[in-house]
Amino acid sequence: MAAVVQPLVESIAAEADPEVAATLARFFQVRPGGYGEGDVFVGLKLSRLRVLARPYTRTPVDPADWLPLLHSPVHEHRLACLVIWSERAERGETAERAAIAELYLANTDRVNNWDLVDASAGPIVGGRILDPDGDHALLDRLARSALLWDRRIAMVATHQLIRAGVTADTYRIAELLLDDNHDLIHKAVGWMMREAGKRVDEAELLAFLDRWAGRMPRTALRYAIERLDPDTRRHYLGQRAG
């Protein structure tokens, strides 16, 4: 590993907690057949990891220096890399953001749990799409991927666009993922739709629901309508039941 990376690795090791590791392993389904099968936790929560990573986010980074962390078997190493890349994607100049996004997209198989996606997809992928030379079609390619994590990245990346008042991508990707069979995608779709309705335009959310509520997976629908009034929620749940 590059010399800049080693102190953070040592800090993570020094604060590792086996009891926390066991709890995280259960929560993120490390068990056989779980979506996190085979992952390795040393026992450090995201809030503490952000504190340890903070000094590395204050100046521009060469993302290649941090790539060995993303390829580490240790979950917290991968998360630390993504926290740093995400912070730099928010703060850095276009060239730095582009370099981070390029490496990220070439290694999405290592962004392989929902917390890793959720900590990084918005700033890195969504932020890059908001650049003047950003490619919105990237989301469609990710949404059509056979890799679960690519599909979740496609959906969660739109959070950054929602924050900028852009919702077309959210609803387009949600429609592409209507028939996805994984619960982690259903949750992401509903979450982003809820955010689009809350932050930008509830009427757009209702228009999408009018068209697609009867076909949406129940989990996605429940997430999407969570902030609507009780009568409206019952209306759309009734469409799904039918």
Written description of the protein model:
This protein has 242 residues and is mostly helical. 67% of the residues lie in helices and 0% in strands. It is built from 14 helices and no strands. It has helices at 6-14, 18-27, 46-53, 63-70, 75-91, 94-106, 114-130, 137-143, 148-163, 168-176, 183-199, 202-212, 218-224, 230-241. It is globular and about 55 Å long. It starts with 5 loop residues before the first helix and ends with a helix. The mean pLDDT is 96.
Name the features.
mainly alpha
| Anisotropy-based shape | globular
Question: What is the structural class?
Answer: mainly alpha
Low-confidence stretches: none
Helix content: 55-70%
Count helical runs: 14
Mean pLDDT across all amino acids: 96
In percent, how much strand structure appears in the residues?
A: under 5%
Q: Topology, pairings included?
A:
Elements: H1 6-14, H2 18-27, H3 46-53, H4 63-70, H5 75-91, H6 94-106, H7 114-130, H8 137-143, H9 148-163, H10 168-176, H11 183-199, H12 202-212, H13 218-224, H14 230-241
